[in-house]
Amino acid sequence: MLEITTIDENGVYAVKNCKKGTEYLVTIEPDTCPCIAYRYYGDCKHIQAVKDIVREDKHMKIAIERTEDLMVLD
After folding, report:
1. pTM for this prediction
2. Residue 7 domain boundaries
3. Which of 41, 43, 48, 72 is the most exposed place for a label (fewest CB within 10 A)?
């Protein structure tokens, strides 16, 4: 299981593998991760996990904004 923590608002995230105890600082836009998989393949599960969280967060913000725009009619 990966635990993701936002480090700063510039898109830096700490991604910790709770099972192995490893932790990596990951950025997106541009994608960077110091893990071996990223070094060899240019992609890794750490970057994908952060992108999934960011995508989910954006969808949640859109849903909240649209809900606030709704009017209640009696």
Report:
1. 0.73
2. 2-69
3. 72
